[in-house]
Amino acid sequence: MPGFSGSSKITPSSDDDLSGKDIFYKWYDGEGNIQFTTEPPADGIEYTLKGYDPNANVIQSVKLPPEEPTTDGSTTTQVKPRNPEDGVNPYSGDHVKKMIEDTKNIEKLLSQRYQDQESALNQ
Description:
The chain is α+β, with helices and mostly antiparallel strands and about 120 residues long. It is built from 1 helix and 6 strands, in the order E-E-E-E-E-E-H. Strand 2 and strand 3 form a beta hairpin.
């Protein structure tokens, strides 16, 4: 089976300093499935140790347009207004109306399915 050895073994992670990081163990179970845990696996199972900084930003940052100087020496960011018709704005009036209509249609469909199930059970 993958991951089994005669004694516990820590495979060095790419993190040299794990202090202040959340520690995770990567190992394979008896069926060969990969496991990630915060506790080490049982003795005799080979695992890899990995530390993750809990304060690291894992979400892609938003790119802002460059700031342009104004006549008074301060800077300003030019933001081009979005056209709600271009499909980028999910909160436009028409889009919200469509979402509400779609939600009502789903509710009707689920209600009909429930009634069909009830009638099938009561036969």
